[in-house]
Structures are given as structure tokens and as C-alpha cells.
Amino acid sequence: MGNVTRGTTNPNRLRRVDRWLAGPEAWRLRQAADPLVIDLGYGAAPTTAVELHARMGSVRADVSVIGIEIDPNRVRAAKPLEREGLTFRQGGFELPLDGRRPIMVRAFNVLRQYAEHEYTAHWDMVRSRLAEGGVFIDGTCDEIGRRSTWVVLDRQGPLSLSISLRFGSFELPSDVAERLPKALIHRNVPGEKVHAFLQAMDKAWLDAAPMASYGNRQRWIAMCRSLKDQDWPLLTGPGRWRLGEVTVAWDAVEPSRDYQEP
After folding, report:
1. What are the pLDDT digits (tens) for 5-51?
2. Cα(179)–Cα(112) distance, rounded to whole angstroms?
3. Which pLDDT value is given to residue 114?
4. What's the pLDDT band for 2 if we cut at 50, 70, 90?
5. 3-state SS of the chain?
6. How much is the mean pLDDT over the chain?
7. Which end of the chain is more exposed for a tag (fewer CB within 10 A), N or C?
8. For residues 84 and 95, is the Cβ–Cβ distance under 8 A?
9. Is residue 193 part of a domain?
């Protein structure tokens, strides 16, 4: 199920989300009865799946990573890179896994290539395949991974939105708007929750300008503290903020129901 994507990719492009999976979300993999992780729609080159295997292997040595692509030519090209714990197969959102249920499914720069009215059906399909305690990560990033966002979903629905930026790659945090996931990319307009959150980030970033003399990391941390003081439901603390990352509960940014797709 799905369409062939453009397939563009670059080495180390997904380092930010992988660092998050191997950090705050690593407990899921450690506790999994079947340590199965999926790179869904890895693209024209299997680079991201190979990197995912290496990074998740640092969490659990017996991890099993499967790269899934809908284009059979891409799967054939990846086969020579198979090794213990890393395989490739043809498929789409239905996840052809012979009855196995993954603890993590990562799909980056995949759903952004679909129409907005299509993404929820694909979300539901993948969620129905997850193991108990499993998560689906639907994300988007720029070509070299300096601006990245992702939504995390479990079997019940969306949990959070994460924004991760490389210091020096933006003037305002809202510069990331063009890299929002499909569920939110058209919602950065007045009246939508995600617009309000990005505006709050921008204001807190500008208000924290005096901290710039101590470096952008300290300025970002000050921004996050300000957001938390304003009762934005941030789900992580300074250990993640110092990486240029912030995670907010989904209900603080979720789309309104009366929005009409442009």
C-alpha cells in the first residue's frame, strides 16, 4: 500500500530522530519481546536503514531492522548490504512482516508526499501493525538533516510532536514550518494550535536573546524554560533541550477539525 516516493536521501540525514530513538525511546526496544525496528520507505539508497541498524544495535545487540520499500528495484539494490539483523523487503504501509509486530516504525519524508486527506488512513494502517508498547514515527527533515520534525504515535493515536534544529541553521524556530509533518504542514495559520506554538517559540527565542552571549544552546534552553513556564506541555527536559530539540504533547498542536485543505 502506497506510492513510490522520490527516494532522495543523504548519509546521516536522520541522525536527529535516530538519536532520539536511541535516547528517550530506547526503553521500548530494551523491553520488547521481539526487538523489531522498521525503516519504512527508506528511498533510492538503503543508507538510512544501515545507519538505523548501527544506532539501534548500540541499544540492543539482537535488534532486527527491516528496510521496507515499495519499489522492487530499490529492494534488489539493497540486498547485497544484508547482514545479521538487517534485511530488506518489498512492501508499503501494510508492513509485510509475516505476522511479526514491530516495536518501532520510522517513516521519514514519506507521508509528506501524499495529500493531506490521505495521511490518517496510513497512520491507522501502521498503528494496527504495532506491537504492544510500539510506536510509529512519522517525520520530515531537510536534505541534510539540520531541520527535523516528527510525530510519535502508539496503537491508540498520536502522542507528541518533536522539533529538532541544528544551531546556526535558523533565525527563528518557526523556520522549521516548511518541514512539519503532513498532518501539520498546512496548519501553520492563525487559529491553528501548531501556529500558536511556533509563534510562542519565536517570541520566547527573541526574549532569550540576552542569553546568546553564552551560546545558542543556552538561549534554546532558556526558550524552552519560558515555554514550560507558560504551561506549554513539554514532555522532555534540559537533557534534550540542549540538543536543539523540544517535544510537546500532541493535544497542544493537533489540527482543528473544521480546517479545509487548501
Report:
1. 666 778 899 999 999 999 999 999 999 999 999 999 999 899 999 99
2. 9
3. 82
4. low
5. CCCCCCCCCCCCCCHHHHHHHCCCCHHHHHHCCCCEEEEECCCCCCHHHHHHHHHHHCCCCCCEEEEEECCHHHHHHHHHHCECCEEEEECCCCCCCCCCCCCEEEEECCHHHCCHHHHHHHHHHHHCCCCCCCEEEEEEECCCCCEEEEEEECCCCEEEEEEEECCCCCCCHHHHHHHCCHHHHCCCCCCCHHHHHHHHHHHHHHHCHHHHHHCHHHHHHHHHHHHHHCCCCECCCHHHHCCCEEEEEHHHCCCCCCCCCC
6. 94
7. C
8. no
9. no
Distance CA 250, CA 151 (A): 8
Q: Does the pLDDT at position 247 exceed 80?
A: yes
Which pLDDT score is estimated for 17?
98
CA 237 vs CA 52, 59, 226: distances in Å: 25, 21, 12
Distances in Å between the alpha carbon of 88 and those of 15, 44, 78, 159, 192? Answer: 20, 13, 7, 28, 39
pLDDT in tens, 133-146: 999 999 999 999 99
Residue 2 belongs to a domain: no
pLDDT for residue 165 is more than 90: yes
Contact 15, 23 (CB under 8 A): no
What is the pTM (predicted TM-score) of this model? 0.94
Domain with residue 94: its CATH number is 3.40.50.150
Residues spanned by the domain of 135: 15-165
Question: Quick count: other Cβ atoms within 10 Å of Cβ 18?
Answer: 20
Rg (CA), the chain: 18
Residue 142 lies inside a defined structural domain of this protein: yes
> What's the total number of domains in the chain?
1
CA nearest 52: which of 101, 109, 12? 12
Residue 222: the pLDDT is 98
